[in-house]
């Protein structure tokens, strides 16, 4: 069975690469997709539409352009992994989890125990809460090979 997995969330660590390496080592037929993880490029995605008078409108334009990719790839995925890091608030990741839930896409969250409380609603809808990338790989192995 082939599977498409969208990797959403935190962009400051190599968690995506860890999952991809683990899936490859386990011999899993998985295609991974993700948002644009180059932070400056993501922030500038809407700049092609012209200069704006405020940071709000620049962010608004870029969010809409980024949403073309995000919505398409989440809709095409079989599963979504949503990573929440400790350093930054990933509101976009929480939105991606909600979008996946609204589409009926299964998703798992990946975060440390110290942010369980602020993510209680996101975790409540998730099919699993993982604390390590190895757990994510094991879930993928189970789903694809069991």
Distance between the termini: 11 Å
Share of helix, binned? 40-55%
Q: Residue ranges: pLDDT <50 for 5 or more in a row?
A: none
Based on secondary structure, the structural category is alpha/beta
The overall average pLDDT, rounded, is 96
Outline: globular
Following the backbone from N to C, one meets helices and strands in this order, namely: EHEHHEHEHEH
How many E strands? 5
Radius of gyration: 16 Å
Strand order of the largest sheet: 2-1-3-4-5
Sheet-strand content, in percent, reads 15-25%
Regarding quaternary structure, how should these chains be classified? single chain
Number of helices: 6
What kind of sheet is the major sheet? Answer: 5 strands, parallel
Protein name: YtoQ family protein
InterPro entries: YtoQ_family_protein
Layout of secondary structure:
Layout: E1 3-9, H1 15-25, E2 30-33, H2 39-43, H3 55-76, E3 79-83, H4 91-103, E4 107-110, H5 120-125, E5 128-130, H6 133-145
Parallel strand pairs: 1-2, 1-3, 3-4, 4-5
Helix pairs in contact: 1-6, 3-4
InterPro entries: YtoQ_family_protein (IPR019884)
Pfam family, one: Nuc_deoxyri_tr3
Protein name: YtoQ family protein
List keywords for this structure.
146 residues; alpha/beta; 5-stranded parallel beta sheet; 5 strands
């Amino acid at each position: 069975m082939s599977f498409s997995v969208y990797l959403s969330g935190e962009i400051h660590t190599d968690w995506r690469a860890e999952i991809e390496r683990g899936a490859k080592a386990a011999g899993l037929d998985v295609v991974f997709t993700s948002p644009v993880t180059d932070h400056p490029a993501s922030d500038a995605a809407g700049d092609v539409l012209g200069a704006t008078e405020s940071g709000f409108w620049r962010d608004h334009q870029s969010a809409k352009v980024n949403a073309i990719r995000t919505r398409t790839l989440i809709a095409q995925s079989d599963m979504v992994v949503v990573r929440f890091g400790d350093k930054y608030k990933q509101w976009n990741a929480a939105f991606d989890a909600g979008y996946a839930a609204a589409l009926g896409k299964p998703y798992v969250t990946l975060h440390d125990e110290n942010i369980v409380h602020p993510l209680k609603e996101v975790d409540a809808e998730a099919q699993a809460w993982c604390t390590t990338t190895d757990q994510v790989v094991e879930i993928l192995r189970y789903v694809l090979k069991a």
